[in-house]
Amino acid sequence: MAEPNVKFKLFQKAIPTNVITGFLGVGKTTAIQHLLQTKPAGERWAVLINEFGKVGIDSQLLKTDDSTEGEITIREVPGGCMCCAAGLPMKVALNQLIGKAKPDRLLIEPSGLGHPEEVIAVLSGEFYQSIIDLHATLTLVDARHIADAKYREHETFQQQLQIADLIVANKADMYGQIEMDALTAYLNAMHLQELPLQITQYAKINPQWLEPNAKFDQVVWQEQPEVFKFKDETQPIPECGYLSLSQQLSGWYSYGWRFKSTFCFDYQALSIWFKQFKQIRLKAVFRTSEGFVAINQADDNLMIEKLPSQLAESRIEFITDTPLDVQVMENQLLRICGINHVNPS
Questions:
Q1: Phi/psi class of residue 202: alpha, beta or left (left: φ > 0; alpha: ψ in -120 to 50)?
Q2: Distance between terminal CA atoms of the chain?
Q3: Within its chain, how far is the Cα of 244 from the centroid?
Q4: Would you say 304 and 293 are in contact if contact means Cβ atoms under 8 Å apart?
Q5: Strand pairing class (132-134; 15-22)
Q6: What would the pLDDT profile of 235-278 be if each residue is shown by its tens digit?
Q7: What HEC string does the chain produce?
Q8: pLDDT tens digit string along 105-155?
């Protein structure tokens, strides 16, 4: 297949590019948020995010303040893995992002259930050799997951470690030496004991970790990945004021909703409602009776944070390996906001 039709102005040098990968809920988006906060003044950075679900939450969470306006550009590709057999969805999104932002640095966050080998293969391919300067790939891991076969034996989890230039043991405030020893033994069993390993908490990434060159010039995968449909468009919300989007891929399910800004959710009722979804990965941004909030749940740890800016719409997405009753969840959400339907401000 031919490369996407795109023309780049000549760059003085190729763009330093890092892949930030890791399984669901390990803190990739938070890590990128910290890196954006350490961006040298005056530099233009670009972020390409691939989300498993169709709604897309991360770009809302990464919105920056006015002081960096024009210096940070974020592009999101929701709805599965952006690397199909030919890598075309990723190339389209990447070309659009580079053409718009003309960045001094590029950060790429693949889906936690995506195929990181293919991302590396696209970036190191012939088409991007004069455009992309591939630097260290960082793989974030929660050492507690080594005890769970659902993670330990998952092909994508293993692949994320195998393509790493640096492994970052995140959330270290939540575990101790026993979990770290298990992670070390697991890496030894995978013959990855020579990989550098850093320990951190709250996904705080040292910008110096980005600088080493990537170890892979080209990655070749053994099996052709499943081809996912790619649409570079945002589906409009219908007149009813909300839109439901769901899918099933590779044994995982995503369930998401988008609500117009006229919907305001009761904060207390919403907080109580989330308690029934323990052990289910979810992200959300909501307009509530107590202001705009971001909600993030991973491994039974629910975090709710106030957002400094307003939202164009409320969004929520669940990712689980077992099916959920979409209609029941939707009815519950509508009841939570039913008495707080307001006019746009």
A1: left
A2: 48
A3: 20
A4: yes
A5: parallel
A6: 888 888 999 999 887 778 899 999 998 999 999 999 999 888 87
A7: CCCCCCCCCCCCCCEEEEEEEECCCCCHHHHHHHHHHCCCCCCCEEEEEEECCCCCCHHHHCCCCHHHCCCEEEEEEECCCCCCCCCHHHHHHHHHHHHHHCCCEEEEECCCCCCHHHHHHHHCCHHHCCCEEEECCEEEEEHHHHHCHHHHCCHHHHHHHHCCCEEEEECHHHCCHHHHHHHHHHHHHCCCCCCCEEECCCCCCCHHHHCCECCCCCCCCCCCCCCCCCCCCCCCCCCCCEEEEEEEECCEEEEEEEEECCECECHHHHHHHHHHHCCCEEEEEEEECCEEEEEEEECCEEEEEECCCCCCEEEEEEEECCCCCHHHHHHHHHHHHHCCECCCC
A8: 999 998 888 778 888 888 888 888 889 999 999 999 999 999 999 889 988
d(CA 65, CA 280): 30
C-alpha–C-alpha distance, residues 71 and 59, integer Å? 15
